[in-house]
Automatic annotation (TrEMBL):
The chain crosses the membrane at residues 9-31, 99-122, 134-162, 197-216, 255-276, 305-327. Keywords: Cell membrane, Membrane, Transmembrane, Transmembrane helix, Transport. This is ABC transporter permease. GO terms for biological process: transmembrane transport. CDD domains: TM_PBP2. PANTHER family: DIPEPTIDE TRANSPORT SYSTEM PERMEASE PROTEIN DPPB-RELATED (PTHR43163:SF6). InterPro entries: BPD_transp_1_N, MetI-like, MetI-like_sf. It is found in: Cell membrane. Residues 95-324 form the ABC transmembrane type-1 domain. The keyword Membrane applies. One of its GO terms (cellular component) is plasma membrane.
Amino acid sequence: MLKYILKRILMVIPVLLGVTIIIFFITRVLASDPAPVVLGEHATAEAMAAWRADYGLDDPIWMQYVNFLVSAIQGDLGTSYYTHTPVASELAARFPATAELALCAIIVASICGIALGVLAAVKKNKLADNASMVLALIGVSMPVFWSGILLILLFSATLHILPSSGRVTPLLQPTGGTGFFIFDTIAKGDFEALGDVLVHLVLPTVTLSLYSMAIITRMTRSSMLETLNADYIRTARAKGLAKRSVNVKHALRNAMLPVSTVIGLQLGSLLGGALLTETVFAWPGIGKFAVDCVLKSDFPVVQGVVLLVAVIFVFMNLLVDIIYAWLDPRIKYGAKEEG
């Protein structure tokens, strides 16, 4: 196990190095000159030349990349062209919003997806199975921005029961703390603000969880069907065990291995920032921040966001593999054992 973990950690290095090369050359070589965008169309040539010199954009491209890589290894992702603050600080201020939304979405997706998948497997080829698969098909097929707009039209514009944007009402926003509003409001005992935070979370959480819920439902159903046909399940039934006990204690426990992998990977992608969901609901996370910075040609921020997403996704992949091996000791990694 230790040898496998060390091997996977070493494999992370070339992956992240490749990500830095791709995103750097896309933003510095293929993209247009950011100076006119940042300074405005009326800026003089001398002002733009001085601005490029300040940010090192007039250095050879290979030197720019080396400087970027060395600084990134030290935790310095550069400075925003607009706010003139470190990119790491900008991301740290917005990541709690993305993480809070992602965690809520994966919890909803996991609970609903596993429940629907088990129901579909137990009631194979019946109404419950067909209904669950239709819901999963809708979740996979419907674009996130479209489902988000539909939910806003229904619950905000028509029924007026849920807010359409933001994390919290400005007057109730908690100050200081961790940036995770649910935790901060509970820690301070401000339950009015907690209720407001939860209400603002409903629509973006449901929207973001639909796709993941559909994937988890399909995987749970497939894994449960395979497990229910296993010999030990037939033995348990022959011994007279209750149907619920067989389905939950025996079948579901063993069917959760591939499902846990899917949940981990889905969480990794959600933590990377839900660009469309955050944009539709004006959610102040790193996804919406990345979109705004792309439109403004704030390339240091774009590079920082992509690198952060890559680190999160690679780490989640590694964590899922380790958990998978821990849950199932039969899994062997590396060279095959002789004999």
